[in-house]
Amino acid sequence: MDTNIEIKNLSIEYRMRNGTVHAVRDADFSVDKKETLSIVGESGCGKSTTGHAILKLLPSNARATGSIIYNGKNILTMSNNEIRQIRGKHISIVFQDPMTSLDPIMRVKDHFFELIKAHDSKVNEQEMIEIASCALEASGVSAKRLNNYPFEFSGGMRQRVMIALAIALQPSVIVADEPTTSLDVVVQEQIMEVLKNLKRTKDMSIILITHDLGIVAEVADKVAVMYAGEIVEYADIYNLYKNPLHPYTQLLLKSVPNIKIGDMELHNIPGSLPDLKNIPQGCRFRDRCPMVKDICKKETPPIIDKDGRKVRCWLYG
Q1: Which strands sit side by side in the sheet containing 309-312, from one edge to the other?
Q2: How far out from the chain centre does Cα 283 lie?
Q3: What is the pLDDT of residue 270?
Q4: Looking at residue 1, what is its pLDDT?
Q5: Beta bridge partners of 207
Q6: Does residue 97 lie in a domain region?
Q7: How many domains does the chain have?
Q8: Domain check: are 157 and 64 in the same one?
Q9: Does the pLDDT at position 213 exceed 90?
Q10: With a threshold of 0.85, does the pTM exceed it?
């Protein structure tokens, strides 16, 4: 398969008044055409930071190194004018909260007009309405609602509008940053079905950022498990669920309730993420790991290839 986007040695820091937050370290992954990669992990592990870096949407106090290769060019070294030509048209994003992402005093059609004009100033209003209508219908929203305001939609419908905006110009990559946050399970299923259909029909790749492992099992082809800013396991969906290698991945899967197993014991992961301003020596998961060894407290584990997968753990090296 052809690679749509490739991330190599991506590291991101936030410079704060009281220190430097090491949000992401040496992230490596790629996404092929018509493929869904899911980035999973606890809140604060660097998932959204990674997703925002792909569109160069990091705040001014962030410093990113490494490379994000799209069409042979490194996004991180692009100028503001260059990245504006890519955002929305070639790579788009669906943010977590559609109510704060949509302007409450703009009609839905005006959001589309603003997006389309940013990339083609010569297109006329009728053409823009046709583009917006097709995108809305593909996302499960009637084109008749183009004149509505965001507050006239439910949470699920607003998220569909956000997806429609993301696909309007038929980008090759969509970054979906927790697109089902705060939605009920029925609407979650509908939103994910929309994304799956778009991947099949529009020839696009999806980078899904989430902490919901149930959703991941339904839609992902590959999974990158993040912990404290590092990708600790990277594998295809089948092998990851069948035989998770990293202790953190194993505990994550055990913590998911399963109503089909009556006597299943519900597990939790004790402790919390380390302070990313003061990273502990050795493995970042060492203080919560049930299989910790002496070397884990002294040396940072490298990424190890194991049966065609990648895992960052001294158990395999």
Answers
A1: 91-94, 173-177, 205-210, 36-40, 222-227, 230-236, 309-312, 303-306
A2: 24
A3: 87
A4: 55
A5: 37, 175
A6: no
A7: 2
A8: no
A9: no
A10: yes
